[in-house]
Amino acid sequence: MTDHPQQPSAVRVFIALAPPDDAKDELAGALRPAYEQYPRLRWNRIEDWHITLAFLGEIPVTAVPVLQPALARLAASRRPLRLGLNGGGHFDERLLWSGIEGELEGLHLLADDVRNLVRTAGVTFQERPLRPHLTLARARRGEQADIRSAAAGLSHFAGRLWQAERLHLVGSNIGRGPGAIHYRDIEAWPFGGET
What we know:
By secondary structure, this protein is of the alpha+beta class.
C-alpha cells in the first residue's frame, strides 16, 4: 500500500492586482538605498508585490473552484485600471508601504465588487476597509525607527502610471525562516472591458 500525502483541507488566499515588472523595477531602484541602509528589515520579494483587494485568510479548498468562475466573469466585465506607485508610509511603525495613485475610485469599486462576489459565494472572511497600498517590508521588534526612516526616504517617489491587466487569486504559504511568506497565483484573469 502506497502512502499518499494528505491534501490540505484549507488554503490561505487573497484577491489582488499586481504592478507590471517595469513599475516594480522603478520602485525597487528607488528602494536601493533603503535595502542597503536597513538590511534587518524583512523585505518582501519583488515578485510578491501586490495590491490586495480582499484578504480571505484560510478558506476551505473546496471554496476555490466556486470562486474561480465568478472572478473570471468579473474580470471579463471590467476594463483595466490605470494606477501608479507613489510615495511611502508605514502602518503602526511595523509595516512599510508604497501608496497607490490613479483611478482610485475604480479601484474601490472593483474591491467592493470582489468582496460582494466572495460573500455571494458563501465564503466568510474578515472584512477590513480598503487602504490601497503595496507592502514592501516589515520591522522586527525594536526596529520601528528603520521603518519610519525608510518611509521618509520614499516620500518623493512618484512612479509612472500603468495598467492593471489582470485580477489575481493568490495563495500564500509560510516558508522557512521567521515571517517568510511566499505567494503563488492560483489563477489570474485578464480584464476584458473597454480601455
